[in-house]
Amino acid sequence: EALFNTLVAHPLFRGCDQNLLRTLAEQSSCSVPTAENEIVIFDGMPMMVVVCGALQVCVGCGPATRAPIGTVLGVSGMLKLAQEAEPYRPGKKRAATTLDCVTTVLDPEMDADDDEDDAASPVSGRRRWSLPLGSCQSARDSIKGCIMNLCPHTLPAWIGRPQTAEKVSGWLRMEILDQITVHNPMRPNPDPVDDSCTVASISMELIEETLAGSSSWMKFQTNRDKELQKFYALLRLFVFPGVPPEVVWALASICEFQEFAPGEIIVKEGDVGPQAESLLVMESGTADIEKLLYISGAQAEPYSVATLTPGAVIGDACFLESWTPRPASVRATTQTRAIRIPGRSLLEVMAAFPGMSSIFMSRSRDTTVVMQKSLMRPSEVLAGMKLFHGQEAAFIRAVANIAERKVCFLGDIVKEEGSTDRTLRQQEFGMVRVETEKDGCVAITDVGTVLGEKMFLGMTATSKASFRVATPVAVNLCIQHHTFQNVLDAYPSAAQYFRSLDTTDGGSEQKEHHAASLEIFNGRSRGFINHIGAFIGRRAYKPGQTIVVQKAVDGGSLYILTGGQAEVIVDNKTVKELGQGASFGELGLLGLVQRRAATVVAVTFCTCLEIPRLSFLQALDEYPEEREHFEKLTKQHEAKIATNVWPFLQQAPEKLLYFVNLYAQREGVTKGTWENAKGEPLPKAAAFLIVSGELAVTSKSGDTEILTQGCCFGEHVLLGLLPGIEALEARTDCELQYMDKTTFEKVLQECPRDRDLVVQGVKNTMAKKAESSLPCGSALMCSALLRGTTERFREHLQVKLKAFLYQAGEKITEVDEPAECMIIVVRGTCAVMNGESKLQRIRAGTALCESNALGVSHTFPYTVQAQTLCLVQTLWKDDLEAILENHPDVSKMFEPLKSQDLEAGTTDVLKQLPRQLRMNHLFSRTSMDFILMACKCSDEVYFAPGDELMTRGETCKLGETAMYVVVAGMAGVKLEFGDDVAYLSAGDMVGEGGSLGITDIRSATISAAKDCIVRCVRLHGPSIMKAVSSFPDDYQALSLHFKKRSQKNAEVEQLRRQWLQESVIPAILGTRIFTGFSLRLAAKIAEPLVKATHSSGQDICQAGESANSMIILLQGEADVISKDNETVGQISDGAVVGEIAVLGLFPWRPSTVRAVKSCETVSVASKHIWKVLESSPAGRDRLHLLEEERRMQVVRGMPMCSLPLQVLPECVCVRAIALHSERFVFSPGQLWQPPGDIASCGPFLWIFTRGHASVLMGPDDHPVNPVLMLLPGRNSLLHESLALKYDARVVAVSPTEAFRIRRMDVQLAGHTVETKWFRRFETMEREVCGHTRTKLMRAKAVLEMSRRQKAPRRQRLRDGQVDEISSCDDKEPMRVDSRGPLMPPTDSLPVLSATPPHSRSGSKTSTIGRPRSQAGFRTLPTFERPIPQAGLRQVQSHGHLLRPARPASPSMAKTLG
């Protein structure tokens, strides 16, 4: 039976048929070894199982151990593994005992920047070496310490030799005492002789014979192959070098393979416990060591500090089951396979073969040396024992003086069964197996256990069990019984106590006394301390290992340093040293801080007691009377409750915030995951506060929102609603605080008076988030009553909003119910109800009952019922009035809404509406029943300044379209061209035609005035439809009235159209930039223009103000005033101001224009012009061409740089004049004659910059001509007024370039910018003007004399006789615009400005009027048909007389010569 049970549990036979295994057990042979003979393990031998008695097994130089019933030996021999393991035997040339499998960022060869090492890791884009090499020394020391503590058995050479194997040659010797001498068939009940050992033998042949032909044989082979893989892996990776194959097989049977994907955590920093204390061996793949460090910034971050390759051993065999946390994390960077060796199972194998610990001997010695210097003082150890608890300090010190520490190694027997040794032992490190001769191992004791207490007190005479060391190292504090008796003689009271003891609890450490000694728990009840003590955990930290990390998020535990020394590091500088008895983490335990304030690093081997925050909270639940103490303690520390307060707890008292931070959980989440530090997924059904980092929250609808520090989400869960979250992912490493509904209720139970405040805060937070998804972005902006107010007013009002939550089916309002608040739906849908029927559906973003908040109505006008889960914001009358007291400007805006009711003295407009409608002439002939039915379910609505009540062109339908009655405010009526043609005031009705079904579309746009809020009563379409159906006669009367109003509107619209055609459109076409535009384009530009009237002395525009439009003076006179308040000119009808602003060349007004007489103007916005030109590419290209031409003039500094004034193009004054100058190009023979309408814009000045032109008077061939020669330089100036006065004209002799500029613009530039050359220009202008005037006066005199002398000849001409010389004068002159550029033919002077890129190819569409086609004249193109680019560049404007280029007569040529 013993053999069968062993086979069933053995890995090779796992899953095999138990009937076959029983047969195998029955067919095996049984042997009784003889004493003092050795059993040798060899290939081909059978597997041996001890079924009775025991064998003695010894490996290496270790102590012999007893192999009890069920021990299996010889498996490696049965499977013939000795020969297979030979290549890995130490001493072989091909064998090695260590592998180079750790590369760190601190390696000496890594000091140089290596591109390959700096390459991005394939995992999450992390850098392989993310820690800067120049980091502080404390960080580098932490890295070195974590590598030494994480992988002590495979250290890099520069850190130290691997602490794995001693110098061994060959396998460790393995001895099995006794030899099989008798081979008998296995009997069901063998009769052992005395205590002799019986061994069952099972050969490979027997196994195959028994299992062959069954599925069990396949399972056996599968199990064998699986175990062999682990066996060969352990040999190949030299994890246990020198250990005999039989022991390696035993180790392989407890191992397991684990696969890790790239990016998966293999071990996690800070993990503790049996699962975390196993050994892991890298079998394939690579992994990075990540250490949590604080270098700088707001939080600690994990840094990749080393790379592990196959052969690396993670863990420390000498610290198994010692409650030592992992010093760092290991993350797979490629697909990784590792061998996990559970710590407790490894200790079981080591206990069976203690001699194998010799491979860890160097590590064991170092561990012993370190611990002996760092363990607790003996007096502290004794004070923690229950046996000595409560004794005098002097007595404990005396006992401590006689105590001594003893170090034992694996397999050492501390006390044998049956021994009379009365020594008392307390385990300070390591584990001890409790074994009996009969039952074997019955228990394994941990640190803090007291051994031999009953014998020490005299309750038993002999030891009932043996104590054998189960770990590589164990340390005990020993007190000899006879020396203890000597101490008792000196302390009678203690002697009486110990001699009176008749029972014991078996010996254990009392850890709660450490908690009682802390200041934070000073004065607390015994039960509270004991409850905490039951959950205190022991922790051990190796030298260089970090206990806590600055700016890191952890569980918030409190630590008590019971042994060793540690240092406190703040901002990478050591600020304090901690010794035995020190504690840290109190604020984290109380929930007062979210992150650790400092890094604590073990300098020596340290032992700590950890008080988990969770156990502290559980103790508070059990002992609620202790909460007041910790609340006071919070204030004494003067610590902030939390760096980031939950948004819905901004107004909560400190006491409630204290309990929130006390009970709420805190977790750190790694980037790209939703897991805590232990790899456990965080819940979704909870409210979360983001203390730091960024988090992506994806809702069920698929919308993803990025939340940052200080934000919270999921707060609706606290009210019992569903989470509604699809996915959560940390965009960066995050620190979170969260609580579920249970925790929330727990907090509220502590502060019941604050429940309403907190719940309201949750709803307000929900509503605030819902507002952000509204189109207007704010609940207050949904209300037309508040939309037109100032932003500052709305900010003050926002804090007064209160949110309410309604489930589907709940009533939000009840008709005629008293109310003094307005309601804004921010989430969900609801409906206006009429009994059980739905009259109107209301969506999120709708404001209701605004009149109630304003105080002009005191009851709800209708019933509103929630159709889905609805969240609404409410604003109460008292809150609105309180805010209005501090905002008199807004209060003034609201006053007309309160006072201008339909009927003086009324308090409720809706109740008085039927009577008021009956008094209106539209409803004067309708019955009251019709009116009452139409007014049913009517409500009040508001429109902010500029809001549209209705839009022209909207579709209307009887039964759906509403009509409005204006209660207060003013609304404008806009027709086709967008100008206000009429205004509606209180008592007026609008929209009746569409609501009554008389018209299909709205004929006008009605919008609230720009400076007031409009209050209206809305009559809904369904109610009107019902009234029309019930009273058809009344409907006919209403239809007649509407037709009369429509006729009046048509008359007003006709008057406006006439004004545009006669005044505005001609003025637009008369401007330079719109010259040549078609009537269609001009009408589009004029459509929205509004006439502005300016009285005498009123400014039309002011110098320096922003200019984004051009102003056309339709009628009147105005002065042009410079910035220094000097009048530089006067303009009149047809003048234009701001053309360069429309072209985008100058964004400010250069002068002030002030009305001298009453003026009428229109302002043409630049934005509107370009929008109209989107439908006219040719017109758009024309404006671009003008813009580029002006820019080129500015660059050249023309025309002023052509004058002998020594000026530069960079001069501001020169550039200003260039912006306002108009460029012309004349072909040889072309004539220019000044227009007769120049008075509107003041005098103009011509400056000829290139070519040669002559000034002519009278007949071309008259001897007086040329009167004046115009050449570039001093003689290039010509005043247009002089040419007009003396009837002179200019003819181009050669290709000529000239610029025309208003004299007023020159004066403005000179007065605005002080320049030295401007005075020289004025002097030169006066001289040239005087010279020109003299020349023209003389020429005029000569011509007058000639005309008188030739009067008879002229008379003959009038009779129809024409001579050769004067025939050229009979041709009709061609009119061109002096304000348009005169473009030369292709062989003439080239145009200096660049053509816009988009107008260089293809044909253009012109908008100039009808072309001239008389013979001998150049035909001008129009914008109505495609023209080539060259044609577009020859666009001319009206107002100037230009003769065509033609060959000169001989006499003319002589004259021009």
What features would you describe in this structure?
The protein is an alpha+beta fold and 1457 residues long. The chain contains 44 helices and 75 strands. The strands form 19 sheets. Strands 4-3-7-1-8-2-5 form a seven-stranded antiparallel β-sheet. Helix 2 (18-27) crosses helix 6 and helix 14 (481-490) packs across helix 15 (492-500).
Brief summary of the model shown:
By secondary structure, this protein is of the alpha+beta class. It has 44 helices and 75 strands.
Quickly count the helices: 44
Rg is: 52 Å
Report the portion of residues in β strands: 15-25%
**Main beta sheet:** 7 strands, antiparallel
Counting DSSP E segments of at least 2 residues, the number of strands comes to 75
- Helix content range of the residues, please? 25-40%
The low-confidence runs, each spanning 5 or more residues with pLDDT under 50, are 93-98, 109-129, 179-194, 638-643, 900-907, 1359-1457
Gross morphology: elongated
Q: In order across it, which strands form the biggest sheet?
A: 4-3-7-1-8-2-5
